[in-house]
Specification:
Blueprint lengths: L1 H23 L5 E5 L2 H9 L10 E5 L10 H12 L3 E4 L20 H6 L4 E3 L3 H11 L3 E7 L4 H9 L7 E7 L2 H11 L7 E4 L1 H7 L5 H7 L3 E3 L4 H17 L4 E3 L11 H10 E8 L3 E10 L8 H4 L20 H5 L31 H8 L4 H8 L4
Parallel strand pairs: 1-2, 1-7, 3-4, 3-5, 5-6, 7-8, 8-9
Antiparallel strand pairs: 10-11
Helix pairs in contact: 1-10, 2-14, 6-11
């Protein structure tokens, strides 16, 4: 009980400090962006937005790798599954829509493909897919999605020659520092003033990966953990740096994140893959933001083995369904509640757009836990505030 009281006291103190520093900025608008789905979950779940001063806005950035997986690759594995190739996938990508529209008569998801007789198996990891494949035999494909957090598990299995014959990997891993730069450019009309850097990703890439944010853009950046107090402390540091006019990098998550990160994991990724320009759902091609298997691993590369195509700039097409605002939500240019489909056509049980699919998607988080501003709207409607 004393521990709970202590945490409550610390939280109350940091919130008061945030309000005091925000007040000293004389009404200056401050937009702070998080780049991690788990941070956004914690912000919404703990009601952190409701604690912010009026001039401080918290916005969600590209923090969900499932949400930005291009429809092109979903379509590819749907076709493979219907052609008799077993597809291994994570639970959230199982419901990720491809390019087919509802009511088109075409399968939109791997779940649809399975309902039509396709061979689709949900797994928790590549290692589980390897185990399943050894028992199953035949031809199999593992759909590998994720940021730098999951890329090492793929790279380790490949480099250490754990991939059995007949199993290939469709590599759709993406990198976060390049999308952070891309996002800054999209916010030029209302600049991002502070960044809460992704905690999970930082355990791999290291805190030093975000130093460019302060040096090149003059934006305070804090690597933070996922407890409410972690996030509030990160916001405090950002506001303090803005007040003092001294943007820098702060590693608040030292209990898990070092400056250099996991050097072994980074070495495995580099040995396995090369960095390339890559497509992001609804956004297009982002320079140097993807990982592609090196030629020596063509035998396990599903793109090579099945004659599939990587999306290039000249052939990329907008791949969100009509009316969906997931691209703007992903970039923090719109809130989930700004989308006219939110909790109408698009709900967690029946996702229309990709941001409603994964538990880390901003729309899914807001739908399940009541996103920022909803409480305030209810209070206003009831005439209580």
């Amino acid at each position: 009980m004393s521990l709970i009281r202590g945490i409550h006291r610390e939280t109350t103190m940091i919130v008061e400090l945030i309000k005091k520093i925000a007040g000293s900025l004389k009404g200056e608008e401050v937009k702070i962006m998080d780049f991690c789905g788990t941070h956004e979950h914690s912000i919404v779940y703990n009601g952190i937005r409701s604690l912010m001063p009026e001039n401080v806005t918290l916005v969600a950035g590209p923090g969900c790798p499932v949400c930005i997986t291009p429809a092109h690759y979903v379509d590819a594995v749907i076709k493979l599954a219907l052609d008799g190739v077993r597809v291994y996938t994570y639970g959230d990508t199982y419901l990720l829509p491809g390019s087919a529209l509802p009511g088109s008569g075409r399968p939109r998801t791997l779940a649809d493909a399975k309902a039509l007789g396709g061979d689709v198996v949900i797994v928790y990891s590549l290692l589980e897919a390897i185990k399943h494949h050894r028992n199953h035999g035949g031809e199999s494909v593992f759909l590998a999605v994720g940021f730098e957090t999951t890329a090492p598990s793929t790279a380790s299995a490949v480099v250490n020659k754990l991939i059995p014959e007949g199993l290939t990997i469709l590599n759709v891993h993406r990198l976060t520092p390049p999308i952070m730069k891309y996002t800054f450019d999209k916010h030029r009309h209302a600049p991002i003033r502070g960044v809460i850097a992704p905690g999970h990703v930082s355990t791999i890439v290291g805190a030093g990966a975000w130093e460019f944010v302060a040096k090149e853009y003059g934006i305070p950046v804090v690597v933070a953990g996922f407890e409410a107090l972690d996030i509030l402390t990160a916001i405090f540091y950002i506001l303090l740096m803005l007040k003092n006019g001294k943007p820098r990098l702060v590693n608040q998550y030292k209990r898990a994140v070092s400056w250099e990160g996991n050097t072994k994991a980074k070495r495995l990724i580099n040995e396995c893959c090369e960095v390339v320009d890559a497509s992001w759902r609804g956004l297009g091609i982002v320079p140097k933001s993807g990982l592609r298997f090196r030629e020596k691993y063509n035998s396990i590369n599903a793109i090579h083995q099945y004659g599939l195509r990587e999306l290039e700039e000249r052939e990329w097409k907008y791949d969100l369904p009509p009316g969906c605002r997931c691209a703007e939500v992903t970039l923090g240019l719109a809130k989930p509640t700004d989308c006219p489909l939110f909790m109408k056509t698009c709900k967690p049980g029946v996702p229309y757009g990709p941001c409603m699919v994964s538990s880390e998607g901003a729309c899914s988080v807001w739908a399940r836990f009541g996103g920022g501003g909803l409480v305030e709207e209810i209070v206003k409607d009831l005439g209580l505030g």
